[in-house]
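Re: beginner question about structure tokens

> Can someone show what the tokenized structure looks like for a real chain? I only ever see the sequence side.

Sure, here's an example I had lying around. Input first:
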Amino acid sequence: LTGVDASFLNMETNSVFGHVSAMYTYDVSDAPGGASYEAVRAAILERLDDLPVFRRRLVTVPLGLDLPYWIEDPDFDIDFHLRHHAVPPPGTPEQVGEVVSRIISRPLDRSRPLWEFYVIEGLDNGTRIAHLNKIHHSTIDGKSGATLLETLLSTDPDARPSHDHAMWHPDRVPTDQELLLRTAAEYIRRPEKFIRLTVRTLREIAAQTHVGSVQMLADLIAQPMPGPVGTVLRQRLRRSHGEVVDRAPALPPTPAPRTPWNMSVTPHRRFAYTTINIDDAKTIRRATGATFNDVVMALCGLTLRKYLIKKNALPSEPLVALVPVSTRASDESATYQNRVTGLLAELGTDEDDPLALLGRVQTSMSRAKTNLQAIPAATLQDFTQFAPPLIAARAMRMYSRLRIADRLNPPFNLIISNVPGPSVPLYSAGAEMKHFFPVSTIADGQGLNITVQSYLGNLDFGFVSCRELIPDLWDLVELLHESLDDMLTAATAIAT
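And the corresponding structure tokens:
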């Protein structure tokens, strides 16, 4: 595994899980047998040679001395991974959301390939079927998740599974001695690798910012430091170096404000979902000159502002979101690994005017992207290779056990992710996929996640929260549509 992949394993505790999911809904009213349990089982077995993430299981190094490895599972059993569920009539979104909530509240079994796939019947009075693909984030990111879906499904509405089984070759499970010998060889090379990486990083920062490496180190330390010490350091740097230090930092200069969901989480989850028309978002984008992602971020910011006002819990400072950014190159589209970094951006929740809020998001996102370019994402990911899994995992368990998230302001309030989805209709044994709802993960201190997936003419929103911190998660669905109406009205007014 890469260091980034392993980080999603290390983050897991009794209440924080590293899996992510996606729910696909299908219209089966005119496709008998489409999207059925039998069709899914046949499709997976037929294409298993193109689905390495479904075949691989973890092998951990003794004592957690090095990053884990993937092997082809010699005991692969599809009937363990594929599950069958149903919701009672009438199969409302709330009923479906409750089923999904319970499924994602359970961790995956690390002794097997890290995925489960659920066929859920009974949606919309039996006219629709949902598929829920639950898979560990250590195996996949948002873009490779879309690739996985395109492998499982077909662009041909007449295609049916052939019931042939793909050929692939399982591995022998390595012994502890073999793993330790490989680890020893890696440790011999590690100090030199770390020194070279550090020197390269300083040179890259200096080249991008036209600032000496020593000054840049001082800048990086001073910018996010809160309190009077950070203030003094920043003032001295300004006197010495003029405006250089006044550029927007990659991290906010103080922690994010606290909200009701910025607490330690329980193992229990809630899931809610909805759809908006992608043309409405494009209308706002054209009227304001914002990017498409800025519009999505602003809609989320306005929704959260309305929710916190209802709860009498709106902070005076703007909320801060962590925004995942894909670093996947064009030739890596079929790579099942995490190619992602992140930036921090303000959501403008202290603005009561929708367009002013959008303007704040635009400015913050633009500055964050500039800072992100200072260090290539590949360099940032290289540093994660040096985190010993045992230490990282114990640190996360200690953080959770001591409930540190309840005592400190968070570095950000939530993750908001906008992932481009398939651009053509997809089918499961003739049943057309209508929606692609993301079901992401949460962690201590960030008990809410909003992920958005585009598919054809839709923007499909998935909300995941800790059940105890946001029990009324479906209120966010209602407030999202209200926020869209407000922003459309404001954008239309300036366009006419």
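Each token stands for a local structural state, so reading them left to right follows the chain. Residues 180-246 form one domain.
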